[in-house]
Write a structure and sequence with these properties.
By secondary structure, the protein is an alpha/beta fold. The chain folds into three domains: 8-56; 61-185, no CATH class; 225-381, Ribonuclease H-like superfamily/Ribonuclease H (Nucleotidyltransferase, domain 5). It has 16 helices and five strands. The chain has a five-stranded mixed sheet, sandwiched between helices. Helix 5 (97-105) packs antiparallel against helix 6 (111-118). The radius of gyration is 24 Å and the shape is globular.
């Protein structure tokens, strides 16, 4: 069988995903279409280069962040295992099922974590007395434990529709009304979106391309239509600018970059990442607004070199790029507006974790039948 050849840039981007997303290496390898052994070999090469370059800036922060993510993943793994056992245990009925489960599983998991996941106090467990409970209460306990876990994994962004689909996909028979009741009872409310302010520098002499997209955001497969735009994030150090490239088929962010200045190279960096990771065939439509970054000769030359058709929004019409605007609204409501970043580096790392670790592989989209971009692409390709 003929082996695929990967560029050095593709290898570096794959290793960057391992560092920033916090996901398992096997999942990332499957997502990129490479073997796990190949990905591990690339990681080893990257670590060897880091040893040869001990002064590489930010390396200590990456190592510390990886340690933190591993600790969080271990806690989440334990809580998932607890929930799996609770589901089968509760179905059998009986008295004081939560305390009985804690008593049975305390050799494998910390008591305080068992009590937290199952929604009981440690003092209540240690003062346990046999007490019957109805089947409905048992089921609500199981559902609520799943709801709390999924709500935390979604960064407190799932409302009752997405939460209901999450529970159903885990084999739990539950409707939206019941999910809404449990969430309301425990004060679990998804953060609402705020108004988004958009700025575009369209006062320039660069040529303007026609609007090939014409607000038709549908696509029959990946790498047929891409949307690009730039937004901004406030930190105590000043503004941080974010450029993204989104595949409109699955709403997946295929390229992104951050910088402390709003210049052409920012947009170029996001585009090059997308080209390295996706390697599209000629005929893809690239849509953006009339900003100087996208109208520049360098940017348009890069698109033409890969056989990409250039499309731009109409003058003053924000709806022509609504798909990318929607992503920025989601990012800001679920991450940016909830955090005060001290430095640009801190904000950039948080954005990387959100995009590579949550938005692309996990977050459920109502427009995709409540599946994630990665899942949607896999189902389309199967």
């Amino acid at each position: 069988m003929k082996q695929r050849r990967f560029t050095k840039e593709f290898e570096d981007e794959a290793v960057r995903l391992v560092w920033t997303s916090g996901r398992a290496q096997r999942e990332i390898a499957e997502d990129l279409g490479v073997g796990l052994s190949t990905l591990v070999r690339w990681i080893g090469r990257s670590r060897d280069r880091q040893i040869d370059e001990p002064d590489r800036s930010g390396q200590e922060d990456v190592v510390a962040e990886l340690k933190r993510l591993r600790r969080e993943n271990e806690i989440l793994r334990q809580e998932r295992e607890i929930l799996k056992r609770a589901n089968s245990f509760f179905r059998s009925g009986g008295k004081s099922v939560r305390f009985a489960l804690i008593d049975k599983a305390k050799e494998e998991f910390p008591v305080h974590r068992l009590c937290h996941v199952l929604g009981v106090s440690q003092s209540g467990y240690f003062a346990w007395r046999g007490r019957p409970a109805c089947r409905r209460q048992h089921d609500d306990m199981v559902l609520l434990a799943h709801v709390r876990s999924a709500f935390a994994l979604s960064n407190s962004t799932y409302g009752s529709p997405r939460m209901t689909r999450e529970l159903q996909d885990h084999g739990l028979a539950v409707g939206r009304r019941r999910t809404s009741r449990l969430m309301r009872k425990k004060g679990l409310r998804a953060r609402q979106k705020r108004q988004f302010k958009r700025t575009t520098d369209s006062h320039h002499a660069w040529p303007i391309a026609p609007n090939l997209l014409d607000q038709d955001f549908s696509a029959e497969g990946p790498n047929q239509k891409w949307g690009s735009d730039i937004s901004y994030i406030w930190t105590r150090e000043g503004w941080l600018y974010l450029a993204v490239v989104i595949d409109l088929f699955a709403r997946r962010v295929v390229g992104w970059a951050v910088a402390d200045r709003l210049h052409r190279e920012l947009a170029m960096a996001a585009l090059r990442r997308a080209l390295i990771m996706r390697r599209p065939t000629p005929g893809l439509i690239h849509h953006a607004d009339r900003g100087s970054q996208y109208c520049s000769a360098d940017y348009q030359a890069e698109l033409r070199k890969h056989g990409i058709l250039i499309s731009m929004s109409g003058k003053g019409n924000c709806y022509d790029n609504a798909m990318v605007e929607t992503f920025f609204k989601t990012l800001k409501s679920e991450l940016i507006w909830r955090t005060m970043f001290e430095t640009r580096q801190e904000a950039g790392q948080a954005i990387g974790r959100y995009i590579d670790g949550f938005y692309n592989p996990i977050r459920r989209h109502s427009a995709l039948d409540f599946t994630s971009p990665a899942q949607f692409e896999k189902m389309a390709g199967s």
